[in-house]
Amino acid sequence: MPSTVKPSTDEPSAWAELTLSRQPAPNQLDNIKAQLDLVLLALEALTHISSEAMLQAAADLNLTDLVADRVALWRLRQSSPLRRGQGRKRMDVEEARALVLIICHLAKQHQELIRRAVALLEQLTEQNREPYQAALLGDYLDSFSNAYQERMEAGETASTQQLGQLALKLLIDLLFYSAPTGNRRLWAALFERSVR
Fold first, then answer.
1. Structural domain boundaries in the chain
2. Could you tell me if 90 and 109 are in contact, meaning their C-beta atoms sit under 8 angstroms apart?
3. Residue 3 pLDDT > 50
4. How far apart are CA 161 and CA 114, in angstroms?
């Protein structure tokens, strides 16, 4: 289905690359919303970006029609079914596209830090050492766990081990999303995972 919103980003093809052959079912869209929020949570935990940085990315990409201010961004994040108090705003496909472009834009800006974190993870894994033993990874894991427990419905019941595994998986995903083809990779991953 063709999009009705066509922002003029620095990469005009970036928006067009995120196409759909058909609209997602409501449960698929819920899964997509949850995944996008988790990826943003991981990016926040690693880079300590603020909502202002996300809004600046939206402005850089000419997506302010979809993500105009902090309230609009908060409502999009609250649309995740994993969130406490979720359901205040429904996210549509155009808003999901906008978040994909914003996430990948920010991941590219912080690619060096993401690469350093993944390289540390590989090094510690080879040495059979815990990720917490590296300050960068320890801080990331703590920040991710704290934010998850504070914001997510299942935060109080999730174990430290489960949250650690999720955080490390998302860290590796961020490396792929920071690549030149990150937009397409994240978009494809969202729909692939949404039908599982």
1. 24-191
2. no
3. no
4. 21
pLDDT digits (tens, 9 = 90+) for 122-145: 999 999 999 999 999 999 999 999
Cβ pair 182, 107 in contact under 8 A: yes
- Which string of b and e fits 176-187 if b means at least 16 CB within 10 Å? bbbeeebbbbbb
Q: What is the value of pTM for the model shown? A: 0.87
- pLDDT at 12 > cutoff 60: no
Q: What is the 3-state secondary structure (H, E, C) of 22-43?
A: CCCCHHHHHHHHHHHHHHHHHH
Which pLDDT score, from 0 to 100, does residue 27 have? 80
Condensed to tens digits (0 to 9), the pLDDT of residues 154-179 reads 777 888 999 999 999 999 999 999 99
Give the chain as a DSSP string: ---S-----SSHHHHHHS--SSPPPHHHHHHHHHHHHHHHHHHHHHH---HHHHHHHHHHTT-TTTS-SHHHHHHHHHTSTTBTT--SS---HHHHHHHHHHHHHHHHHTHHHHHHHHHHHHHHHHTT--GGGSHHHHHHHHHHHHHHHHHBTTTTTS-HHHHHHHHHHHHHHHHHHTSTTHHHHHHHHHHHHHT-
Which amino acid appears at position 165 of this protein? Q
